[in-house]
Protein: MoeA C-terminal domain-containing protein
Organism: Clostridium perfringens
Amino acid sequence: KLDYTLCCTFLKGMANFYTGQEVLLNNDSKAKIIQIDLNNISSPLILCEDEFIDLTKTDDLYIVEIL
């Protein structure tokens, strides 16, 4: 069994670490992680070519690699 407080602290630390990181998307575009929702860490808000994209609202776009 995992401790809730410890898990939340860990996830917040991860979100802070990956914010600002460059990622590769499945369409071969590069983007920058702008904000991570702790309730859905696999689908952050990204900035791609001067356009903000919320990955929680797109089914056809996703991160394939952290650069």
In short: The chain has one domain: 4-66. The radius of gyration is 13 Å. The beta strands are 22-25, 30-35, 45-48, 51-54, 63-66. Residues 43 and 59 are 10 Å apart (CA to CA).
